[in-house]
Write a structure and sequence with these properties.
The complex is a heterodimer of chains A (about 120) and B (about 110). With about 120 residues, chain A is mainly β. Chain A has strands at about 5, 10, 20-25, 35-40, 45-50, 60, 70-75, 80-85, 90-100, 110, 115-120. In chain A, strands 2, 4, 5, 6, 9, 10 and 11 form a 7-stranded mixed beta sheet that branches. In chain A, strands 1-3-8-7 form a 4-stranded antiparallel beta sheet, with no helix packed on it. The chains are: A mainly beta (about 120), B mainly beta (about 110).
Amino acid sequence: QVQLVQSGAEVKKPGSSVKVSCKASGGTFSSYAISWVRQAPGQGLEWMGGIIPIFGTANYAQKFQGRVTITTDESTSTAYMELSSLRSEDTAVYYCARGGELLRLDYFDYWGQGTLVTVSS
Amino acid sequence: QSALTQPASVSGSPGQSITISCTGTSSDVGSYNLVSWYQQHPGKAPKLMIYEVSKRPSGVSNRFSGSKSGNTASLTISGLQAEDEADYYCCSYAGSSTTVVFGGGTKLTVL
């Protein structure tokens, strides 16, 4: 069974960066896209970007261009999302999610448990 | 502001059917049969309910169905049950530059 296990909660100062990890198990890592989706408190889901490990190039939502970096380490089946220049509005639960089929980025069949990132001075 | 428009809330009684709409544009919902729907209970990760407009993943009840007409996709839940009470989000592929967009979410209340 596929599992995505994310790193623990973080508290960050405004202006700093955060890096969240997502370790996959139970499936073939390289050929399935990993996306990052965030959810601010009481708000909806927001797609930030995604990557297909075997290709190595990430796509980012325009809103986050220049501030987010998504990478993977195929040797450990782990994806990473780094968000820089943090502000209070970035306080949210960040989810990683796997693409539903090989090389597909448009829907997500497995999700991580979520990582709460709190940005506060 | 979310890219796809959903009603903020819908409600229905047990056994009834409800439909949640998801309106996009000709650049996303209208151009691709790549609409998916997710159910989210409080404090939990989203769960895939429908993909490619109307396909159900293994294990999802056949009470859940999806459709699309023009720029609007819909999720229908028949035979409402108490455990269906949750937030529902639509999602659409939007081309290689924008890639994926979500709706704002709809809170379903089972009366």
